[in-house]
Amino acid sequence: MTEQNHPAANGGSNPFFESWTGPFGMPPFERIRPEHFMPAYDRAFAEHAAEIAAIADDPSEPTFANTIEAMELAGRPLDRVASVFHILAGANTNDALQAIERELSPRQARHWNGIVLNEPLFRRIDDLWQRRGTLGLDAEQARVLERYHVWFRRAGAALDATAKKRLAEISERLATLGTAFSQNVLADEQGYTLVLEGEADLAGLPDFVRQAARAAATERGMAGKHVITLGRSSVEPFLQFSARRDLREKIFRAWIARGDNGGKTDNKAIIAEVLGLRAERARLLGYETFAHYRLDDAMAKTPAAARGLLDRVWKPARARALADRDAMQALIQEEGGNFKLAPWDWRYYAEKLRKKSFDVDEAAIKPYFQLHHIIEAAFYTAYKLFGLSFERRTDVAGWHPDVEAWEVRDADGRHRGVFLGDYFARASKRSGAWMTSLRDQEKLKGDIRPLICNVTNFNKGGEGQPTLLSFDDARTLFHEFGHALHGLLSDVKYPFISGTSVLTDWVELPSQLYEHWLERPEILSRFAVHYRTGQAIPDELMKRLLAARTFNQGFATVEYVACALVDLDFHLAPGAEKIDVNAFEEKAMARIGMPDEIVMRHRPTHFAHLFSGGGYASAYYSYMWSEVLDADAFAAFEETGNIFDPATAKALNQNVYSAGGSRDPEDLYKAFRGRLPTPDALLRKRGLADAR
Ligand SMILES: [Zn+2]
After folding, report:
1. Which residues participate in catalysis according to the annotation?
2. What's the CA dihedral at 23, 29, 30, 34 to 10 degrees?
3. I want to staple 328 with a disulfide (CB 3.0 to 4.6 A). Which of 201, 349, 459, 544 is the partner?
4. pTM of the predicted model as reported, rounded to 2 decimal places
């Protein structure tokens, strides 16, 4: 997309002021320019505010229809512009959009404060809530009313004017800080490349790593060279294969220093301020700490419950990691190396150890994992479980030429929604992988079908070559596609509880559960096909691959659980506003006995889950909480002897994928499984059940 050379944009039409008549009502991305956003936001904010004022000041007695449904119907132009802006800011940003984002975040916070802190409006919601038993609401309406009441109460609607004023200031400031945090990380990622010169620098790198490095160089105007970036899918394979210990150390240090380099893009002061403001907000709302506040509205309910699960997993994971470390150290000695294993060595020697123990070689596996075959595998799984079919639509344009679109139909051939995939890494995209939507499913304002997006950062194959994924990449694709199904299969009336609008420690269940199917011979033997020979992955290689599945799980669990524990520590800490971030991290690592050779998966200064927007603040444990559920949920299929068992799939669709937030998650799970899970299946899945 080009943003220049459109001087007529102001004089011409703004696409946000028109109805969108293209296929499926998709936003006309090809016509949307940065200068369209602020006028569209200005108008949308004003319209939404007027709608809300009319609801709040309605002289008639509050009813579910004139209050909750009216709010559900309000603000549609704002949803429209915000969803488009959101996807561009994450997946295809530029200086102009970043400037808008900085201006917008506090304004957006101010706008929503004006709603959740609106006194007459809350009085109406509270009145309905008090009379909820007499209103004749159906189950979904009762749940929506409950969620609105919780939302307003937790935002401070019931507090006095002074407290409200302070809460409003806090959320505006937090919005500004969140944007600055993620822009700083992106700047550090964009500002660094490791340029490899000549064969000596490429030592140990298999073809696919070289190809991706050549493509990254070309994208950065260094055609003919090789470039490693700080994106996970670029740096991790390099660490895994590069025989150049000095270069591994160099890029590893740069990678873990994102946001921690001093100067303009340093995030440490931001973190301290964010933590201080969150703690203050929690106190104003009557909670001991932010963690207590946050978890009060989660399945875990308390920080102690979240920590209890993490502690249970930590010990066996650490023991397993230490045993692996010793085995790698022995390997170094065996090879005549005279050094102590360092963090930048772990992936390299783990790869060697994996080869040695399981005869599985990432470079030999990768040719079997072609991006488009794995996408097909995800579609096929959705067909076998839920009867969905996917048709490629080349007439649907996305926000970048790389975006691909599919129309999704259900078992009866009816239109279900549109799925958009934006798979390739590029400099204008933030790192990581995520699902988002351009429109959510609902049945309130007509039968609205969703537009659901997956964004990932896979390295594009070189010129004329297919894109090859690692097994981890393939798992990420399935994970995000599981989220996408949560959005696509959503079958509720009200937007407020549609799709992934659920509690954070429930939202990872549909995504993590979906990963299980990828790891099954039924899928692999069909879709893991060698890109040159067209041959399916040999049985015996697949067996070795699956046998190696729990390999290095000590490391993976340790680098994750350390993050989740530090997240809780940060949000339980008194006096957080004065925190020395690096010293705090160091102390926290010492306290849990973090092995010297492992670093947190996300160090605080680039821990976007916690500090850019804060969706997972004090909730990073959610992945493990959901994993307790997904391990147990997949066992429900295994127990039938059929991983596509129709009855189980139907119950799963009904109570998980299509249910959104229409019921309490514990009730949903019990309706699916007949009981709540224990962590046993999780420990087995990670191969930690017998480790101590
Ligand atoms: Zn996820």
Report:
1. 480
2. 160
3. 349
4. 0.92
Q: What count of residues does the chain have?
A: 692
What is the sign, positive or negative, of the torsion defined by CA atoms of 467, 472, 474, 480? negative
In sequence order, the 6+-apart residues with CB closer than 8 A to the CB of 356 are 331
Question: From the CA of 3, how far away is ligand 1's center (Å)?
Answer: 32
Give the pLDDT confidence score for residue 667 in this predicted structure.
Answer: 96
Q: Cβ contacts of residue 440 below 8 Å, gap of 6+?
A: 448, 450, 487, 490, 495, 498, 499, 501
User: How much distance in Å is there from the Cα of 126 to the middle of ligand 1?
Assistant: 33
Residue type for 246, please? Answer: D
Residue 639: exposed, middle, or buried by beta-carbon count in 10 A (0-12, 13-18, 19+)? exposed
Residue pair 509/661 in contact (Cβ under 8 Å)? The answer is no
What is the predicted pLDDT for the residue at 255?
98
CA of 340 from ligand 1 middle (Å) equals 35
Q: Which residues of the chain carry a pLDDT beneath 50?
A: 1-11, 692
Q: What is the pLDDT of residue 233?
A: 82
| Residue 379 CB contacts under 8 Å (≥ 6 apart), including other chains | 388, 389, 390, 406
Could you tell me the sign of the dihedral formed by the alpha carbons of 671, 677, 681, 682, in that order?
positive
Ligand 1 mean position to 478 CA, how many Å?
A: 10
3 state SS of 453? strand
661-676 pLDDT tens trace: 999 999 999 999 999 9
